[in-house]
Amino acid sequence: MISTDTSFDLAAGALNLLDCGVIVLDGEHRIVLWNRWMTTRSGRSSTRVCGQSLFTVFAELRGSRVEAAVLAALVDGNARTVSQGLERAPFPLREAGSFDGARIEQAVTVSPLREGGATLCMIEIRDVSGTIDRERQLLEHAESLRARSYVDGLTGIHNRRYFDMTLDRELRRAQRNGGPLSLLLMDIDSFKAYNDHFGHQQGDTCLITVAQALAAMLKRPADVAARYGGEEFAAILPDTTAEQAAGVAEAIRLDVAKRRLAHAPAAHKDHVTLSIGVASFSKDGLNEPALLIEAADKALYAAKRGGRDRVVMAGTDPSP
Ligand SMILES: Nc1nc2c(ncn2[C@@H]2O[C@H](COP(=O)(O)OP(=O)(O)OP(=O)(O)O)[C@@H](O)[C@H]2O)c(=O)[nH]1
């Protein structure tokens, strides 16, 4: 049979072995128990802190959620968890033996404790640094995956998925505001001949050059350059009228042509060029993504039929 005294010593020994901090406060918030975990993480021994108010020992806890939880536990007798989330750790505790390192991340539970008619309060502090680090890494990883899922792997500009999502969003915004919105669809002329002559790998390099040129020509933050498919590109131009979009399209066409990227002998010209179709939102006409794309696509093929290396506006097909 273990005596009461021995049980008490055992409890104190077990408390000191716990892999978490334990503090017990009396009704006046004075520290009556402070285990070894707390000593090694705070640099303050039990003899130094016992008898003092927790909020004198850690003045920064005044006004904190830990103080609110302690006051509430002593008043209503309910336990509370102080979740840290991604905020600053409440107690100034560091890894054992490192008093100038980073604060350990903490999960804090505050529970009422009744003893001989008095209400005390027990605070448990767990080191959750590993969990929070992993959570941060997972969040960063998820964010980078999300960003990558909107980028075209070859050219580095936005992909078709991002284009579809943005066109949908911008069209709904244009519907609400009645504001202008234009779409450009662009296609590299005679690209089959380019690939046949220079090989697929150089074809890829050509696609990258054109994509980067296109992205650099779009100056407004809301403009979106995307690879629409194969050798086809698209640009979404919010707050841009058909006339302004025609100007942007012409500037892109000229920019690519002026680079004088050598083309295949079988191509329509000795340098790489673009055909571009332009369509603009109208409240009662081109007011859906599919309608706007169809109109820009028709204009693009009108540009092809008209001889390539040109810009055609939707509804103004120049060919007979
Ligand atoms: N190198 C490379 N070629 C691609 C890629 N995607 C599509 N293409 C090629 O782009 C070419 C497109 O050819 P077509 O659709 O016949 O059109 P075109 O030769 O450009 O002729 P026009 O559009 O009428 O001027 C095909 O040969 C495709 O193989 C790609 O990712 N890399």
Automatic annotation (TrEMBL):
GO molecular function term, any single one: diguanylate cyclase activity
Superkingdom of source: Bacteria
Gene3D superfamilies linked to this entry: 3.30.70.270, PAS domain (3.30.450.20)
Keywords: Nucleotidyltransferase, Transferase
UniProt domain GGDEF: residue ranges: 179-316
Enzyme Commission number(s) from the entry: 2.7.7.65
PROSITE patterns in the cross-refs: GGDEF
Pfam family, one: PAS
Catalytic activity: 2 GTP = 3',3'-c-di-GMP + 2 diphosphate
InterPro entries per UniProt: Diguanylate_Cyclase (IPR050469), GGDEF_dom (IPR000160), Nucleotide_cyclase (IPR029787), PAS (IPR000014), PAS-like_dom_sf (IPR035965), PAS_fold (IPR013767), Rev_trsase/Diguanyl_cyclase (IPR043128)
Record's protein name: diguanylate cyclase
Provenance organism: Massilia suwonensis
